[in-house]
Amino acid sequence: MTREFYIQQIKELDEGLVAMGDESMKLLSLSLKSLVNKDKALAEAVLNGCKQEDAAGVALESKCIELLALQQPMASDLRFIITTLRILTDFERISRYAWDIAKITLRIENEPLLPQTNDLMDMYKLVNGMIKDSLKSFVTSDVELAKTMGTRDDAVDTKYDQIRRALIDEMVRHPSSIDMASHLSFVAMYLERTADHACVIASWTIYRVNGDRTRIK
Amino acid sequence: MQKDIIEVSRLNLHYGNNHALKDISISIPEKSITAIIGPSGCGKSTFLKCLDRMNDLVPGVKVTGNVSFKGKNIYDKDIDIVELRKNVGMVFQKPNPFPMSVYDNVAYGPRIHGIKDKAKLNELVETSLKQSALWDELKDRLRESAMRLSGGQQQRLCIARCLAVGPEVILMDEPCSALDPIATAKIEDLMQKLKEKYTIIIVTHNMQQAARVSEKTAYFLMGELIEFDDTKKIFETPKDKKTEDYITGRFG
Amino acid sequence: MELRRSVEEKTFIIITAAAAAITSLLLILIIGKIALEALPALNLYFLTTAEVDTPGYGQAIANAVVGTICLSLLSVAFAVPLSLGTAIYLKKYAKDNVLTRSVRFMIDILSGMPSIVLGVFGMLFIVIYLKPITGGLSLLSGALAMAILILPVIERSAEEAIGTVPRELEEGSIALGGKKWTTIRRITIPYALSGIMTGIILGLGRSAEESAIVVLTAGYSQFYPAVEVLQNSKMPFGAQLGPFQEPVGTLAISVYHMFQFPNIVPRANGFAAALVLILLVMVINLSARVILWRWKIG
To answer: What is the interface pTM, i.e. ipTM, of the complex?
Structure first.
């Protein structure tokens, strides 16, 4: 096969991107676990993991730019590189949310969590499923799976509204819980945003497969 | 909607036993640049030469099918070949200026078609040289031998020579492959200017050039037309896997 | 290894240089010897008087000089259209098949024909059979026979020259709508011209030095070739048109005659005539080359 070196680079880029996606998913999961279990050590570990993620993201970005400048990628290779550049930022955002959640863990000390935390975990299950599947659709080029993100995001949005209202209720009823409730509010927002990112990842996955750039909302 | 100036239908060409062009059907839009790409030996130059019947010069060539220029099949028995070649001009891979002065080169076409009036010839030479961005460089050197020009100038001279007979279509067979990048860039700029008035069909083995200059691109492989579409579509989302493999450089 | 190679190199340089030296030496020897022998006879009288105006035999060669020039030019005039036409036809129009290859083969045989054979043919056919047209032994007969001799020479050079014309130039003309003859006239022949001219010069030189044909077809004359009409009842219309239908003197025959009668004609005269012939051919060659050079530069 001609252009072996170049094909190898594309393959490595692909693997690097999937690894980064996996890692950001894991960091999010761990950050929530650290919050629920009030595990400060775990939170610190998550913070470290996020720093490494950032470095990995910069490296992947450099690789994309290099390939564009030097190898004149065309057709599916071109679409792949553009997709990579776009969803890099989505993975960066997701690990940013993991960072923020870990920070919250470190800030709440030993304050008791609110009962709404359970709803949060339910919401997380939905979101986690979305991220996992969006990544899967990217790896397996599954356009149909990618298209399911739209409706699933709607479900997450509904859940988000629910949790926010419940937290506001709690703050009204027990003003002492305002601090905690606002933290949890933020966590819910991060999860909702993560679901949005899953949609973006799905959109670009579809572009990579067939050049169609309609956005999934 | 752009009209199609050349319509090819089920064109087949044999060199003796070699079936060089297989059932080609394609419609070329007017006043635009169409690029033909493909690996060596895929038939793209052969196809180009069918459009002005330069293939007739090759002994043992057999052509079947229909090649219509503005609605008339150029392989009909009653076609005036001289008229055809006036309407469909050709620029070759290696610049081939005649061993004469710059002026005589450009005036050659009009002269052999009967134009003797000096004023008219002067005007044609000036217009053609202006259209190929050579007038400013050469207006004081018209009597100089064309063989003294640089490669890029010679090729632009050949374009001017072609324009002087007033074609509607200009066929270019890898016009830049013997030129350096600057000369190439000048010719590509020239093509962009010319496409406002002329239809240009360019055969090139340089994919990036095809991507840069053309509106539509055709991919040939082993005598067959594999895919023909807007250039943007061909280079971003080609439909045929063979096209994709060629464009991404995956051979063998 | 190094040493051996340089010894080999040096040996070959010496051998090839020696060959060149010997060749040049031979030439100088031949011309030198002839020139030496010719010296006593080389004077203005010898060179500028027609033989007819001299007492007896072989005392002057001016008529032969003019005759040689006329004969050569006339032969070339006859040969060029024929050979050029043949070359153009074979190279540009005819398909490469058995027929064209046979024609080329025939031209090759013609070029290899001994000049004495052509001379005999000339004598029988041109001189005797065509006497009413050619006037028998005459300038015309000689030129016709000579033309046959030099035809292959010119044709081959012309064909080769036409073959060197780059196809791209001809394709360029055709792509502009040029017809075949237009292209040949405006592109092919001008490009091939120097090669064609070389062939013509070769033919010219060849005809100047040829003797066998001249003996059998051109006869000999002590007079200058002159434009005149003689009365001759054996010719149609009773007229013999000079200089064409009259015999003509040539240097080759002069040399021959002069050595035929060693008792009457001094040896030096023969050598002088030979020297003049050599110089004449050299001048033809050189001046034509100069003309070509000037043409190319301009």
So the answer is: 0.93
pLDDT reading at C239 higher than 90:
no
Q: Positive or negative CA dihedral for B92, B96, B97, B98?
A: negative
Domain ranges of chain C: 40-297
C177 and B112 within 8 Å at the Cβ level: the answer is yes
pLDDT digits (tens, 9 = 90+) for A106-136: 988 777 788 888 889 999 999 999 999 999 9
Mean pLDDT on C224-229? 82
Q: Any CB–CB contact under 8 A between B17 and chain A?
A: no
> Chains A and B: how many Cβ contacts under 8 Å?
38
Residue A172 lies in a domain: yes
Answer whether the bond into residue C262 is a cis peptide, omega within 30°. Answer: no
Domain holding A189, by residue range, is 4-210
Question: How many domains, in total, are found in chain A?
Answer: 1
Best CA proximity match to A91, nearest among A207, A194, A210, A202? A194
Identify which of A47, A82, A79 has the alpha carbon closest to the alpha carbon of residue A61.
Answer: A82
How far is residue B227's CA from residue B208's CA, in Å, rounded to a whole number?
17
Q: Residue C2 pLDDT more than 70? A: no
Q: Name the CA radius of gyration of chain B, rounded.
A: 18
Fold of C40-297: MetI-like fold (1.10.3720)
The pTM of the full predicted model, rounded to 2 decimals, is: 0.84
**What residues in C contact B97, CB-CB < 8 Å?**
172
For chain B, list residues with pLDDT below 50: none
Contact: C176, B85; criterion CB under 8 Å: yes
Give the pair of three-digit tokens for residue A87.
Answer: 């969803």
As a CATH number, domain B4-97+169-247 is 3.40.50.300
Where do the domains of chain B lie?
4-97+169-247
Most C-contacting residue of B96, B115, B163, B170 (CB-CB within 10 A), to test interface: B96
Could you tell me which residues are beta bridge partners of residue C130?
none
B202 to chain A, minimum CA–CA distance in Å?
A: 20
Chain A residues in contact with B236 by the CB 8 A cut-off are: 74-75, 78-79, 211
